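User: Please predict the structure of the protein below. I'd like the answer in structure-token form so I can feed it into my own downstream comparison script.

Assistant: Understood. Taking the following sequence of 91 residues as input:
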Amino acid sequence: MQQFGWILPYAIVIAAFYFFLIRPQKKKEKATQEMRNSVKEGMEIVTIGGFYGKVVNAKEDVLTIEVGADKVKLKIARWAVGKVIENNEEK
């Protein structure tokens, strides 16, 4: 029984890494993926590059957004969405 006593500290460290590092990171990635998949036409977004725009066309992996006062249209990849702007947030 004593010959396996060294395993317990390693098991505790591995469990701590899982619960404090790996699990929260996977949870955050899942939430980000769900947010990106929920983007639809008419929503206002911020890209990871810092562009603020309104989605005018949403396809499977490509979004077309209108940016700026003169309504320039840009095509971006869906994975480039940084966050969705709620109606009560300021730009």
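That's the full token string. The first strand starts at residue 44 and ends at 47.
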